[in-house]
Amino acid sequence: MSIHIPAEKGSIAPIVLMPGDPLRAKYIAENWLSNIELVSSTRNIYFYTGTYKDVRMTIGASGMGCPSIGIYSYELYNEFDVESIIRIGTAGSYHENIKLYDLINVDLACSESSFAKFAFGYDENVIAHQGNLFDSINETASRIQLPIHKGNIHSSDIFYRKEMTTPAIATAHNCLAVEMESFALFANAAYLGKKAACVVTISDVIPTHEKISADAREKSLIPMIELVLETAVLL
Question: Smaller CB count within 10 Å for the chain: N or C?
Answer without folding.
Answer: N
